[in-house]
Amino acid sequence: MRGQVSRKTVFGFIGPAVIGLAVVGIAPLLYAVWTSLHFYNLTKLKRVEFIGLENYMTVLTDGVFWQAMGRTFFLLGTALPLQIALGLMIALVLHQPGLTLIKTLCRLSLVLPMATTYAVVGLLGQVMFNQKFGVVNQLLGGADINWIGDPENAFAMIIFWDVWQWTPFVALVLLAGLTMVPGEVEEAARLETKSKWTVLRYVQLPFLLPGLVAVLILRTADTLKLFDMVFTLTRGGPGSSTEFISLMIQRVGFRGFDQGLASAQAIILLIITIILAQIYIRVFYKEV
Amino acid sequence: MTSTRSLWTQIALLVVIIMVCVFPFYWMVTTSLKTQIVALEAPPVWVFEPTLDNYREALFEDGVLRTLLNSLVIAVSTTVLALILGVPAAFALARFEFRGKKDLWFWFITNRMVSPIVLALPFFLIARNLGLLDKHITLILIYLTFNLPIVIWIVTDQFRGIPYDLDEAARLEGASQFTIMRKICLPLAMPGVAVSAIFSFIFSWNELMFGLILTRTEAKTAPAMAVSFMEGYNLPYGKIMATSTLIVIPVLIFALIASKQLVRGLTMGAVK
């Protein structure tokens, strides 16, 4: 019978990985839970003491946490629709027959932004969006826009880079969906109607939906994770205008030295992530 | 008539997409070839005399070479470790029935999504207490938290595609499960193993936050080094872009090699 092996054999194969993951992945989380229940400040290590849920109460009633959350979801809410609209457009262009060579080139170019080191994206932002000698202002016809030093412009710049880096991902996911539409079905639909919109809405959309759900969940998770690019570009500033949730926790824990409070914030973030992961599993891994 | 016109719009669109994707890299490389004086010209110049001074200075005077080597050692070690631990686990997930499979999957997906700051806080305190700050091994181990799931996921997928009849035939001849994995399935799963290794390398090489928090000088990674140029007033833009170019080139090459599997890997198989 397939799959019937002794427990010992199973453990021999999977044990090392599970133990490895438990040591580096789970033990630190338990430690974070412990820290979150204590007053734990890096500058006052003599005074570490148990304070129960006080840190959690502070997080939940504290405006800073919710502001950072709100900012994070505002970024998601502005960048994701742009990524989906542009991504769909790119996917539809690539899906049309013909022009193989330039389309292959285009597909390869799309891979580049996704793979780029986040920190390098941030550094590129520093150089290209510089007010005086940045190429962006030059391309805007010699504009004199202060991108990095102005709260709203800095936010727009972050949106730009997020869209630049992740629209290709959305495009390739949607393209994969488009290629799932059976050729005969698409052709038959095109003979029936001249409207591209009708074909998209009634023939292609059902095949795009799983990809769209995946994009929605993964982009949400990735925006909650977002740190490297913003840290190198604006450090969360000016003020706290681009301080998204992961940056805020990093600031509280390492620049504000309050590890207890930061851990409580991190645990709440972890709970949100677990819920997202559960949804993802329910939708995509029915067989597991 | 309309068809030629739509053909031209299509070409124009494709060219625009390619240019938007590639332009930042063009700008990065050209800036890296500018002297500080040229780099600070306003408005920026497009034609100038290129120089490799930034690369020479960054690599040999500022110690970027050493941080690149650190990044290389760390990314390769964590990848090898993830393969050693992950391949047998993947074989078990693909071939055996056992309880707790669901929990493992849940764990992998959660790890794909969780913010690194959640692990960085406790890892920093633990590493500090154990005297493991600024050591290569610390990053090698912490990178396992995202490399191991991705390796296990991709390789499991690959093992599942290998017909079970092959195992069966070998088993009738008395081969152990380990021999079956090593001699029969692993050679056939090599493409998947290679792709998972590329993913693992890219993720580790690109990582900044842990590198920033857990290293100082000895084990400093290349992205952390690039960021440390950003302090002070007179920023060495050419040098920063030279370092960026050195960091980005290997990942871009690897990403192009694995481009067909990139989306599938990033979505953990949800998108074929």
Structure description:
The complex is a heterodimer of chains A (288) and B (272). By secondary structure, chain A is mainly α. Chain A has a single domain (63-284), classed as MetI-like (MetI-like fold, Orthogonal Bundle). In chain A, 74% of the residues lie in helices and 1% in strands. Chain A is built from 12 helices and 2 strands; from the N terminus they run H-E-E-H-H-H-H-H-H-H-H-H-H-H. Chain B is built from 13 helices and no strands. Chain B has one domain: MetI-like fold (Orthogonal Bundle). With 272 residues, chain B is mostly helical. Chains A and B meet through helix 1, helix 3, helix 4, helix 5 and helix 6 of A and helix 1, helix 4, helix 5, helix 6 and helix 7 of B.
What's the short story on this structure?
With 288 residues, chain A is mainly α. Chain A is built from 12 helices and 2 strands.
Q: Under CATH, the topology of chain A is which?
A: MetI-like fold
| Mean pLDDT over the residues of chain A | 90
Unreliable residue stretches of chain A = none
Widest sheet, order of strands of chain A? 1-2
State the fourth-level CATH superfamily of chain A. MetI-like
Architecture (CATH level 2) name of chain B = Orthogonal Bundle
Write the layout of secondary structure elements.
The complex is a heterodimer of chains A (288) and B (272).
Chain A: H1 7-36, E1 38-39, E2 49-50, H2 54-61, H3 63-95, H4 100-115, H5 118-128, H6 135-139, H7 151-178, H8 183-192, H9 196-225, H10 228-233, H11 245-255, H12 259-284
Antiparallel strand pairs in A: 1-2
Chain B: H1 2-32, H2 36-39, H3 53-61, H4 64-95, H5 101-113, H6 116-129, H7 136-160, H8 164-172, H9 177-206, H10 209-214, H11 222-228, H12 237-257, H13 259-266
Helix pairs in contact in B: 1-12, 3-12, 4-7, 4-9, 4-11, 5-7, 7-9, 8-9, 9-12, 11-12
